[in-house]
Amino acid sequence: MKAFTSETSRFVAVPGVNCDTDQIIPGRFLKADRAQGYGQFLFHDIRRDESGELDPAFPLNKPGADSATILLVEDNFGCGSSREGAVYALVDHGIRALIAPSFGDIFYNNALKNGVVPVRLPLALCDALAEHLAEFPDAEVTVDLEKSEVILPANLGTHPVSIDPFAREGILRGLDEIEMTFTYAEQIQAFEQARIASHPWLGR
Predict the structure, then answer these.
(1) What is the C-alpha separation between 46 and 64, in angstroms, rounded?
(2) Can you give the three-state secondary structure of 142-171, one letter per residue?
(3) Among candidates 119, 102, 96, which has minimal Cα distance to 39?
(4) What is the value of pTM for the model shown?
(5) What order of strands is seen across the sheet that includes strand 140-144?
(6) Three-class DSSP category at 115
(7) Of 8, 30, 52, 172, which shows the fewest CB atoms inside 10 Å?
(8) What residue stretches are annotated with the Aconitase A/isopropylmalate dehydratase small subunit swivel domain (predicted)?
(9) Per-residue confidence in pLDDT tens, the chain, 204 aa
(10) Which residues are CB-contacts of 53 (< 8 A; sequence separation ≥ 6)?
């Protein structure tokens, strides 16, 4: 996965409390070859009109929105099924961080495993951020994982970002859990050798 240290970007507010993983990527697209990119399916059914064309009113379809790498989403984002494809769709679209009052638990962990930083902020602050964006559509947010903080525009302040330390280390280094394990190869080998030396019957 791509390493994440700090990201400054325009952000897009995607509406919808309890936006589930089927809205993020409908299940019928999960059989598609990911080598072709899941980003094309992101919010497929809710960002298109009845004819299947992109709805110009949907936030991600507005001019300049494609350059945004941070999304402001609503409460309980990513609830529903455990499909990891929902995070794949965000990653393949270029999304690096999400800001919300809360996330579905499994989705939250899937995001961390794929290098997407989920930032939890109080509901009132998320609402204030959405109001600011409505007035200033070019406003930017910085998610700084090295400093464990998010810097909001105007007078909305700087706030801590708290994620699991192991996940944070992996994202900073661009390593998944298996790759992180390999970084301890020498220690693992030394432990195994010492274990066999002290318990030789284990090697029989």
Answers:
(1) 19
(2) EEECCCCEEECCCCCCEEECCCCHHHHHHH
(3) 96
(4) 0.89
(5) 117-120, 97-100, 70-72, 6-13, 140-144, 149-151, 158-160
(6) coil
(7) 52
(8) 4-122
(9) 899 999 999 999 999 999 999 999 999 999 999 999 999 999 999 999 988 899 999 999 999 998 999 999 999 999 998 899 999 999 999 999 999 999 999 999 999 999 999 999 999 999 999 999 999 999 999 999 999 999 999 999 999 999 999 999 999 999 988 888 888 888 888 888 888 888 888 766
(10) none
Phi/psi-derived region of residue 115, left when phi > 0, alpha when psi is between -120 and 50, beta in every other case: left
Return the SS3 of 177: helix
Measured CA to CA, the distance from residue 135 to residue 8 in angstroms comes to: 19
Alpha carbons 94 and 5: distance in angstroms, whole number: 15
35 vs 25: CA distance, rounded Å: 16
Instruction: Name the DSSP letter for residue 203.
Output: G
User: Mapped to the 3 state alphabet, what secondary structure does 49-103 carry?
Assistant: CCCCCECCCCHHHCCCHHHCCEEECCCCECECCCCCHHHHHHHHHCCCEEEECCE
Residues 130-167: b if buried by 16+ CB within 10 A, e if exposed? eebbeeebebebbbbbeeebbbbbeebeebebebeeeb
Nearest alpha-carbon partner for 73 in 131, 10, 126: 126
Structural domains of the chain, ranges and CATH numbers in brackets: 6-163 (3.20.19.10), 174-204 (no CATH)
